[in-house]
Write a structure and sequence with these properties.
- The structure holds 3 protein chains of 3 kinds.
- Helices cover 77% and strands 0% of the residues of chain A.
- By secondary structure, chain A is mainly alpha-helical.
- Chain B has a two-stranded antiparallel sheet.
- The longest helix of chain B is centred in the middle third of the chain and has 37 residues.
- Chain B is flat and about 100 Å long.
- An 8-stranded mixed beta sheet of chain C has the order 6-7-8-3-9-10-12-11, sandwiched between helices. A 4-stranded antiparallel beta sheet of chain C has the order 2-1-4-5, covered by helices on one side.
- Chain C is built from 13 helices and 12 strands.
- The chains are: A mainly alpha, B mainly alpha, C alpha/beta.
- Chains A and B meet through helix 1, helix 5, helix 6, helix 9 and helix 10 of A and helix 7, helix 10 and helix 12 of B.
Chain lengths: 310, 342, 365
C-alpha cells in the first residue's frame, strides 16, 4: 500500500514537471512580445522591458530561472496588472473559486447519488425515467448554455436570485446549480448503473433469504457496495469543475481564478496564464491521487490483502 | 392433468416414433451480432428519435445556408439586432417568430415596422446585421465538422496506440502506458488552451488540439480488449494457421471490438462539440466572420439581456445536438455492450 | 411422521417479452421432519424455481404464482405479504446458494453477516449475537473463529465461504433448509467435507433439508427421498433406494444410465439425446416424449398421471398403465434392479441409505 502511494506521488511530481516545462516552451513559441497589446511603448522602452524580464536571454537560461523561481514560489509578475506577483493574484482569487467548487461538488454528489439510487430502486418506473431524463439533460446541455439560460430566465425575468457578482450567499446559488449540473448527471448515471448491478448479485439475494427488509437490503448491503466505485468518478468530476469554472465565473461575474484565466488569455498575459495552468495541473494531479488513495482505503478487498485465501 | 373421462384405448399403447428432430428444433431464427444489436437499438425509442433528429439537423446544416437569400457573412448594419420573423407565423404571437422583441421591462418593440424593413429574417439578425438563420446553420456545419474529424482522429490514434500497446506487450507496453498516464495527468483544459494560443485559433488547430487529448480513453479501452483477446483461442487458432500479426489485429481482433470502438467514438463527438463551443466562449474559438455554434452563443451572450434570441437559438440547437448524440450513444451502448445482454 | 412443508399443485409462470413461460406446471410434494429430500433434474427443469418460490424469492416483476399452495406452519406461503415472509426467511426457512464466491457481501465482515439474522429474528444483543456467531463458526468447522469473525469474505477460501454461508443459514435453527446446488462450485474433496458437515448439522439441529442437485453421486450420499423433475413437473418420486435400484420412469432410466459406475464395462457412455422442452409452448402430452426411446402414442396425446409403485414410490409414466406393453429398461438399470430384488424393503448396506422409511403419500393428478 505504501509502495503504491509512493509510486503515485512520484508520478505526480513527474507529471507536474512535464506540465511546467511544456507550458514554458509553448509560451515561448508564441510569436511577438507580450507587450504588444499593452500601452504603446516606444522602441527603447520596449527594449528596457524586454531586458528587465530577461526575454532576451537564451532559452535554456530563461528555463532555468523559471524553474528555480517556481520552486521558490515565485511565479513571476503579471504583465497586465503592473508587476503584481502572479502568486498574489492567484491567492486573491482562489477564494471564490474554491467556495464555488466545493459547493458544487458536494451538492452535485449528494443529489446525483440520491437520484441514482432512487432510479435503481424503482427501475423502469416513471421516477426512474424522470431521473434518467434529468441526467441526460444535465450531461448534454453545455454548462455555459445552462448558466446563460438560468441567468436569463431565473435571475432577469423571475428575479429570484441576483444576476451576477459575488456579494453574499444568495449570489452563489445560481452559479452552483449551473456548475453542479454536470456532476449530478454523471454521478446519477453511474450510481444507478452500479446500484442495479449490485442489486442483482447473489449476496443481495442471500440477504433477502435471511429475512432482511427492503430498507436493510438497499442501504446496509447494496448502497455501501455500490458507492465504492462511484468515488473513482468523483475525482475526474471535481476536476471538470475547473473547466466549468472558467465559463461560469465569466457569466456570473465572479472574481475567481477561472475568470482571471480567461482574461489573461485574451490579453496574452503569459505569467498569469502559466501560473494558473500549473496550479490547475497541480490541483488535478493531487485530486486524482487523493481519490485513488481513498478508494484503496474504503474497499476492504484492497485495504486488507487476503490472508489464507485460496 | 389428465382427462380421466376419456377412455384410453388399448392401441394407444402402441410404440410411437421418438422424434428427435422435434426436440432439437430451434424455436427462433438465429441472428448475427449486428442484427441482434439493431433489433435492440430499434426497441430504444429515445435512440431512434434522436437518430432522426440528428439526420434532420445534418441535412439542415448542409441546406440551411442555401435556403435563405442572405449570406452568412454579409453585414448590414441598418438591419442590426432584429428579432426572428417568419412569414406566415408572424401573427401567432405566442410563438417567438412574430418579429417583436420584449425588453426586460416588459415593453414590446416592433423594430421591423419602426425601421421599415420589409425583408424577413427567419432567425433574426445579429449586432452587425448578419442573417442569423444562415449563420446558425453554417455554425452547425462547422461545429459538426470539427467534432466529427476530432472524433475520427481520436479513434484512429486511440485504436492504433491501444492495439499496439496491448498486442506487443512487455516493455513496449509498459512504456506506452507510462506515457499515457502522464498525458492523462495533464488537464485537457491546459493542453488545449496552450495549443490554441500557440497555433492561433482556426478550424485545423482546434481539431488538432481536441484530438491531442481525446484519444487516451479509447487507447485504454482498446488495450484492455486486446489483452483479453490475446489469450483467447480464436487468436491462437489464427496464429497456428500462420496469420501475420497485422492481420490478427486488424482482421480478427478489431472486428470483435467494433462495438466498443463505435460506442466510444459516438461519445467523443458530443465531447468535441462541447469543447469547441467552450473554447469559443472563452475567446479561443474561430475568428470573424467564421461562425460556429460556440462563437454564436458567445456573441449572443453579450447581447443576451436585450436580444435573447441571439443566444437562445444557437443554445437550443447545440443542446439538441448534444442530447441527440448522447441518446444515440446510450442506445448503441445498451445494444452493443455484451455485459448488458440478458 | 409429521409433515413440515406441503407443496400442493404449484403452477408458476414467467412473463417474458416472448410470452408466458410455464416454468412449473403442477408440482406436488411433502417434506417430513428431519429428512433430506433431493430434487434432481437438468437445467431448466424447474428445481430452483420451485424452491425459490417456497422462499418467495422470485423476481416480483415478471413471475406469477398462478395457482397452488405452499403450506408451512399452518400458513399458506403463497398468500403472505412480503413483510410476513421476512419473518420466516432466515428464521424458519433458510436457503444456501450455489456459488460461495458471490454469496457473501464483500464489504461486510463475516461476523456481521452471521449476526444479522440473529439480531433481527431473535432480538439478541450485539454482544450475545457475536458470541453465538463465533460458536457457529466453530460448529461449521472454521479454525480460530474468534479471529475469523472479524475478517472479510475475500480472506476465506471457497470451501470456507460455503461453511460460513451454512452457518448463516443455520444460525436461527430453521425448520427447513433449502440447499440449491451447494457443492457444485466446489472441488470434489471439499464437496465431500461440506456434505459431511451438512449431514452432521442436520442431526444436531434436526432440520429438514431440500437438496437440489444434478449430481446423482451427491444424491446417493445425502438423500432419504428423491424427486426427479423434468419440464416443470415431478416425474418420479420415491426413497433413494427405490429411485436408484428400481426406477420406473424412462427419464430416470436415462439419468441412471448416464452415471458410470464400477460395473460399467467399456460400453459407450450413455447420454440422453435431445434437449429439454421449450416451456413457452409446453408440449401436449408427456414433456419427455420427444426424447423417450420407449415413447407410445398415448405419450403424445395425454400427460401421464402418477402411478403407484409402492407406498413411497410414484412415477408419472404411461409405461405403468396396465395396458402398456412390458419393456426392457437399459442395461445399467437392469443391473441395479437385479441388485434391488434381493433387498426389497430392507435397509441396504452398499449405499449410504441408513435412514428409516417415511410413509410418503403422493397425490397424482
Amino acid at each position: 500500500m505504501a509502495k503504491y502511494i509512493l509510486q503515485r506521488v512520484l508520478y505526480m511530481i513527474f507529471t507536474l514537471f512535464i506540465v511546467v516545462s511544456a507550458t514554458f516552451f509553448l509560451m515561448k513559441l508564441i510569436p511577438g512580445t507580450p507587450f504588444s497589446s499593452a500601452a504603446k511603448l516606444s522602441h527603447e522602452q520596449l527594449q528596457i522591458m524586454i531586458d528587465k524580464y530577461g526575454l532576451n536571454d537564451p532559452i535554456p537560461v530563461q528555463y532555468f530561472h523559471y524553474i528555480v523561481n517556481m520552486l521558490k514560489g515565485d511565479l513571476g509578475v503579471s504583465f497586465q496588472f503592473n508587476n503584481t506577483p502572479v502568486s498574489q493574484l492567484i491567492s486573491d482569487r482562489i477564494g471564490p473559486s474554491a467556495i464555488l467548487g466545493a459547493q458544487s461538488i458536494i451538492i452535485g454528489a449528494i443529489i446525483g447519488i440520491a437520484l441514482g439510487v432512487i432510479g435503481a430502486l424503482k427501475q423502469n418506473t416513471w421516477i426512474d425515467y424522470t431521473s434518467t431524463f434529468i441526467a441526460v439533460l444535465g450531461k448534454s446541455i453545455p454548462n455555459f448554455v445552462f448558466a446563460g439560460l438560468l441567468q436569463y430566465y431565473v435571475a432577469v425575468k423571475l428575479e429570484w436570485f441576483p444576476v451576477m457578482f459575488w456579494k453574499g450567499p444568495s449570489y452563489t446559488v445560481l452559479p452552483t446549480i449551473a456548475l453542479a449540473m454536470f456532476t449530478i448527471s454523471i454521478t446519477a448515471r453511474f450510481m444507478r448503473t452500479e446500484m442495479v448491478e449490485v442489486l442483482g448479485s447473489d449476496y443481495i439475494t442471500l440477504a433477502k433469504a435471511k429475512g432482511a427488509s427492503f430498507f436493510e437490503i438497499s442501504v446496509k448491503h447494496a448502497l455501501r457496495n455500490a458507492l465504492i466505485p462511484v468515488i473513482t468518478v468523483l475525482g475526474p468530476l471535481a476536476v471538470s469543475l475547473m473547466t466549468g469554472s472558467l465559463v461560469i465565473e465569466r457569466i456570473f461575474g465572479i472574481p475567481g481564478l477561472g475568470e482571471q484565466f480567461v482574461k489573461s488569455i485574451s490579453v496574452n498575459d503569459y505569467p498569469v496564464i502559466m501560473g494558473t495552468s500549473i496550479l490547475f495541473a497541480a490541483l488535478f494531479v493531487v485530486v486524482i491521487l487523493v481519490v485513488d488513495i481513498l478508494y484503496g482505503i474504503i474497499d476492504p478487498r484492497i485495504r486488507i490483502s487476503g490472508g489464507g485465501s485460496k | 392433468m389428465t382427462n380421466k373421462d376419456t377412455v384410453i384405448s388399448k392401441d394407444m399403447f402402441q410404440p410411437a416414433q421418438m422424434d428427435l428432430l422435434k426436440s432439437e428444433k430451434i424455436a427462433k431464427p438465429s441472428l448475427n451480432f449486428w442484427q441482434d444489436a439493431w433489433l435492440r437499438v430499434r426497441k430504444n425509442k429515445a435512440a431512434v428519435v434522436s437518430l432522426f433528429v440528428t439526420i434532420l439537423l445534418v441535412v439542415m446544416a448542409l441546406l440551411g445556408p442555401i435556403l435563405t437569400p442572405y449570406k452568412y457573412d454579409k453585414q448590414n448594419t441598418a438591419h442590426a439586432n432584429l428579432p426572428p420573423r417568419i412569414q406566415g407565423l408572424e401573427n401567432i404571437h405566442w410563438l417567438p417568430f412574430d418579429g417583436t422583441v420584449t425588453t426586460r421591462f416588459g415593453k414590446e418593440l416592433h423594430p421591423y415596422e419602426t425601421k421599415q424593413i420589409k425583408e424577413y429574417y427567419w432567425f433574426g439578425t445579429d449586432i452587425l446585421g448578419r442573417d442569423q438563420f444562415a449563420r446558425v446553420w453554417k455554425g452547425t456545419q462547422v461545429s459538426l465538422l470539427i467534432a466529427f474529424f476530432a472524433a475520427l482522429i481520436d479513434m484512429l490514434i486511440g485504436v492504433t496506440y491501444g492495439a499496439i500497446s496491448g498486442y506487443v506487450g512487455g516493455k513496449v507496453d509498459s512504456i506506452m502506458q507510462r506515457i499515457v498516464e502522464v498525458l492523462v495527468g495533464i488537464p485537457n483544459l491546459v493542453v488545449v488552451v496552450l495549443m490554441i494560443l500557440v497555433l492561433k485559433p482556426g478550424i485545423i488547430p482546434i481539431i488538432l488540439a481536441l484530438s491531442i487529448t481525446g484519444w487516451t480513453s479509447m487507447a485504454r479501452v482498446v488495450r484492455a480488449q486486446v489483452l483479453k483477446f490475446k489469450n483467447q483461442e480464436f487468436v491462437l487458432a489464427a496464429k497456428t494457421l500462420g496469420a501475420s500479426n497485422g492481420s490478427i489485429i486488424f482482421k480478427h481482433m478489431i472486428p470483435n471490438m467494433m462495438g466498443i470502438i463505435i460506442i466510444n467514438t459516438m461519445f467523443s463527438i458530443p465531447n468535441a462539440i462541447f469543447f469547441e463551443a467552450f473554447l469559443s466562449f472563452i475567446g479561443l474559438g474561430l475568428q470573424e466572420p467564421n461562425a460556429s455554434l460556440g462563437t454564436l452563443i458567445n456573441d449572443g451572450f453579450k447581447s443576451m439581456l436585450a436580444f435573447p434570441s441571439q443566444m437562445v437559438i444557437p443554445a437550443v440547437i447545440i443542446s439538441i445536438i448534444m442530447i441527440a448524440f448522447n441518446l444515440i450513444a446510450d442506445g448503441l451502448r445498451d445494444a452493443l455492450d455484451p455485459k448488458m445482454r440478458d | 411422521m409429521n409433515k413440515v412443508l406441503e407443496v400442493k399443485d404449484l403452477n408458476i409462470s414467467f412473463h417474458t417479452f416472448a410470452g408466458e413461460v410455464k416454468a412449473i406446471r403442477g408440482v406436488n410434494f411433502d417434506l417430513y421432519k428431519g429428512e433430506t429430500l433431493a430434487i434432481v433434474g437438468e437445467s431448466g427443469s424447474g428445481k430452483s424455481v420451485t424452491t425459490k418460490s417456497i422462499m418467495r424469492l422470485l423476481p416480483e416483476g415478471n413471475s406469477e404464482i398462478k395457482s397452488g399452495q405452499i403450506l408451512f406452519d399452518g400458513k399458506d406461503l403463497t398468500k403472505l405479504k412480503d413483510k410476513q415472509m421476512q419473518k420466516i426467511r432466515g428464521h424458519d426457512i433458510s436457503m444456501i446458494f450455489q456459488d460461495p464466491m458471490t454469496s457473501l457481501n464483500p464489504t461486510m465482515k463475516i461476523g456481521n453477516q452471521i449476526m444479522e439474522p440473529l439480531v433481527k429474528h431473535q432480538n439478541l444483543s450485539r454482544h450475545t449475537a457475536r458470541e453465538r456467531a463465533i460458536e457457529l463458526l466453530k460448529l461449521v468447522g472454521i479454525a480460530k473463529p474468534e479471529i475469523r469473525v472479524d475478517q472479510y469474505p475475500h480472506q476465506f477460501s471457497g470451501g470456507m465461504r460455503q461453511r460460513v454461508v451454512i452457518a448463516i443459514a443455520l444460525a436461527c435453527n430453521p425448520k427447513v433448509l433449502i440447499a440449491d446446488e451447494p457443492t457444485t462450485a466446489l472441488d470434489v474433496t471439499i464437496q465431500a467435507q461440506i456434505l459431511e458437515l451438512m449431514k452432521d448439522l442436520q442431526k444436531k439441529i434436526d432440520t429438514s433439508i431440500i437438496f437440489i442437485t444434478h449430481d446423482l453421486g451427491v444424491v446417493a450420499n445425502v438423500a432419504d427421498r428423491v424427486a426427479v423433475m423434468y419440464g416443470g413437473k415431478i416425474v418420479e418420486i420415491g426413497t433413494a433406494e427405490e429411485i436408484f435400484y428400481n426406477p420406473q420412469h424412462p427419464y430416470t432410466w436415462g439419468l441412471i444410465s448416464s452415471m458410470p459406475d464400477i460395473d460399467t464395462d467399456d460400453e459407450e457412455l450413455f447420454s440422453i439425446p435431445g434437449t429439454p422442452p421449450d416451456l413457452l409452448d409446453p408440449p401436449k402430452g408427456d414433456a419427455f416424449a420427444p426424447r423417450n426411446p420407449y415413447v407410445m402414442k398415448i405419450d403424445l396425446e395425454q400427460e401421464p398421471p402418477f402411478f403407484k409403485v409402492s407406498d413411497t414410490h410414484y412415477a408419472a409414466t404411461w409405461l405403468l398403465h396396465p395396458d402398456a406393453p412390458k419393456v426392457e429398461p437399459p442395461e445399467a438399470v437392469k443391473r441395479r434392479q437385479n441388485q434391488y430384488d434381493g433387498t426389497l424393503g430392507a435397509a441396504s448396506e452398499s449405499t449410504a441409505l441408513n435412514k428409516g422409511k417415511f410413509p410418503g403419500k403422493k397425490e397424482g393428478k
